[in-house]
Design goal:
The structure holds two protein chains of two kinds. By secondary structure, chain A is mainly alpha-helical. Chain A has one domain: Orthogonal Bundle (ABC transporter involved in vitamin B12 uptake, BtuC), CATH 1.10.3470. Chain A is built from eleven helices and two strands; from the N terminus they run ααααββααααααα. The termini of chain A are far apart. Chain B is mainly alpha-helical. Chain B has a domain of 214 residues. Chain B starts with a strand and ends with a strand. Classes of the chains: A mainly alpha, B mainly alpha. Chains A and B meet through α4, α9 and α11 of A and α6, α13 and α15 of B.
């Protein structure tokens, strides 16, 4: 019994990371109806930026966030301003194909620069320390920090969206970009800010991913898929729903891995397909997508 | 007033296509072993890109998971021949039919996702297929399996005979795919597809059953893609989950080919494949840099000339290689 409690607790903790993959994806979809196929590769890019930062400055991985988050946000602003803004319109194809091309470019550039060898960030003793929740269920400090960070990120996004002028601009542009423009908002700037915020979240997710497990240039697409599944399971447009979706995905994967190690990822996909079959609007939908 | 398809340039082009086809069918007479291999690979990419073009360019179903059907076709071929002793040449169409049947429940699921999310949904399906394939220990699990010698020799006794047969099969499947797409586009469904491509809402309000048309296109694409997938891996003689369900080989290249050649036009994939192979033959040594450049070219084309090379030619000169455009004549 404690075996299974342990599986579920670990799944919940990983789910926080998936929710963070999902939050950045869901944010830009909400504001500009763009699905960024390169999202997963940008997470991996953040992981490599953290690697370079920790190695060259001798920082602790978690401290490298101070550098990586603003850097990724700047990349996001520039990317949106220079490339992605040109693709937005009624046609679905250009943003999809351009971000797909970006994904291939990021993967192969990282491969050229860092080779295909798996890397990992060392965070020191905190990686191994844990405390018992109940008899037989250990909670690692690092997974717990990651989960708490994920909840804080979601709460912060919720606050930005519903309590600040920036959030009001996001929501106005999402509702009707033409009218928002008439009210004096510069859509291109609003979109660029949304992408900057999305990549700031991506940066946190990337650093946490790099501390938790091995990474190499090719693992981006799978992160995109996890994030996407969490968005759909949770329901479009709901940030707290996204957290729930990430947790469900994490738990499904943990249960799959417990049954057979080869089933970990597959179990997550199957959970997603089951939700799609019986409740396509997701568990906590907010907008019709 | 009447509606006509062809004009002089199209009739001329049709004659050229027919002559080229005869020359290509006779390739074993004039080409060496490497030529045949390269040509068969080119046919595979023209077919895959034409099918993706039908799906994304005409039906608006932008899939980044067509490797699901390349891999499914390949695995069905190996399963049918190794486990059920089906003759290899019969197994190819059979793999296509089974994959098409499987595409119906898949469509029922992923058609619930709209637009961009549909694209990632197709990718999830491909990943599910890949992970299931790597769990089938009778077909080598994660490391894959080679086609047993007995099955290989059953295709043709000598190596040369086998190579000829596989070459002709590749050409035959390509021609079948192109004829099927051509016929579909000239039928009522073609008119419906063009309407959907131009404005889905307007098409719907004119009484077109959009979901039904899209489903038919998805099914036809699954059929063609998996047959080509089966043939590609019959030529390779070995299948593994990572090669059969490779997103780079069977989707990234295919998308770049179509975008560069001209999406939403039947000639686009042909032009794109020629450009793709010309680039590959000259830049093959660059490794991953080559992929990087291809991605960059595709992005620039999408931003600067979204209709691709052929779209540019059509706008400039009004040519069409195949008589598909409906033209009004005889104003009275």
């Amino acid at each position: 019994m404690t075996d299974w409690i342990n599986v579920i607790v670990q799944g919940v903790l990983v789910g926080g990371l998936y929710a963070m993959f999902a939050a950045g994806l869901s944010l830009i979809f909400g504001v500009m109806r763009l699905v960024n196929i390169a999202h997963g590769d940008l997470i991996v890019l953040a992981a490599y930026l953290a690697l370079v930062t920790t190695q060259s400055l001798g920082l602790n991985p978690l401290a490298s966030l101070v550098v990586v988050v603003p850097l990724m946000a700047a990349i996001g602003y520039a990317l949106q301003w220079l490339v992605l803004n040109r693709t937005l319109g009624d046609d679905l194809l250009p943003p999809l194909l351009v971000t797909f091309g970006l994904s291939v470019i990021i993967q192969n550039t990282l491969q050229e620069l860092f080779t295909a060898d798996p890397r990992k960030l060392q965070a020191g003793n905190i990686e191994y320390e844990s405390f018992p929740l109940i008899e037989g269920v250990l909670i690692g400090k690092l997974p717990l920090i990651q989960f708490v960070l994920a909840v804080l990120v979601i709460a912060a996004l919720q606050l930005i969206f519903y309590r600040t002028a920036l959030g009001r601009a996001f929501r106005a542009t999402a509702d009707d970009s033409d009218v928002a423009q008439l009210m004096g908002l510069d859509n291109r700037h609003v979109f660029a800010l949304a992408m900057a915020l999305s990549l700031a979240v991506v940066a946190i997710a990337g650093v946490l991913l790099a501390v938790r497990a091995n990474f190499d240039p090719t693992i981006g697409p799978a992160r995109l898929i996890f994030g996407f599944e969490a968005v759909i399971i949770g329901g479009l447009g709901s940030l707290w729903g996204t957290l729930a979706g990430g947790i469900m995905l994490g738990v499904a994967q943990a249960i799959g891995a417990k049954l057979d190690p080869g089933w970990q990822i597959l179990a997550g996909h199957l959970a997603f397909l089951v939700v799609l079959a019986i409740r396509p609007q997701g568990l906590f939908p907010k907008v019709q997508g | 007033m009447s509606v006509r398809f062809s004009d002089r340039s199209a009739r001329l082009a049709l004659a050229i296509v027919a002559a080229a086809l005869i020359a290509l069918a006779a390739a074993p007479l004039w080409g060496g072993r490497d030529d045949l291999r390269l040509l068969a690979e080119i046919y595979a990419y023209v077919a895959l890109a034409s099918l993706w073009n039908l799906l994304a360019g005409y039906a608006g179903l932008v899939s980044v998971g067509q490797q699901a059907y390349v891999g499914l076709g390949a695995y069905l071929l190996f399963a049918l021949t190794i486990l059920l002793d089906v003759p290899a040449l019969l197994a190819i169409p059979l793999a296509g039919v089974i994959a098409a049947a499987l595409s119906l429940p898949v469509a029922a699921l992923i058609f619930r996702l709209r637009g961009h999310y549909f694209a990632i949904g197709t990718w999830v399906i491909a990943e599910v297929f890949r992970l299931i394939a790597s769990q089938v220990s009778a077909l080598g699990g994660g490391s894959g399996i080679s086609l047993p010698i007995a099955i290989v020799t059953s295709i043709g006794a000598s190596r040369q005979e086998r190579e000829f047969i596989i070459y002709w099969l590749a050409l035959a499947i390509l021609v079948a795919v192109l004829v099927a797409i051509f016929t579909l586009l000239r039928s009522r469904y073609g008119l419906a597809l063009t309407a959907i491509r131009d404005n889905e809402l307007a098409a719907r309000s004119n009484g077109i059953d959009v979901t039904r048309v899209k489903l038919i296109v998805y099914l036809v694409t699954a059929l063609g893609t998996s047959m080509m997938g089966a043939l590609i891996f019959l030529q390779k003689l070995r299948v593994s989950p990572d090669t059969a369900f490779s997103v780079n080989d069977w989707t990234a290249f295919v998308i770049f080919i179509t975008v560069i050649g001209g999406i939403g036009r039947i000639e686009g994939p042909l032009i794109g494949t020629i450009v793709f192979f010309a680039l590959r033959q000259t830049l093959a040594d660059l490794g991953s840099l080559y992929l990087l450049m291809l991605g960059a070219v595709a992005i620039v084309v999408m931003l600067k000339a979204p209709k691709g090379i052929w779209g540019f030619v059509v706008d400039r000169f009004g040519w069409q290689l195949l008589p598909l455009e409906r033209r009004l004549t005889g104003a009275s």
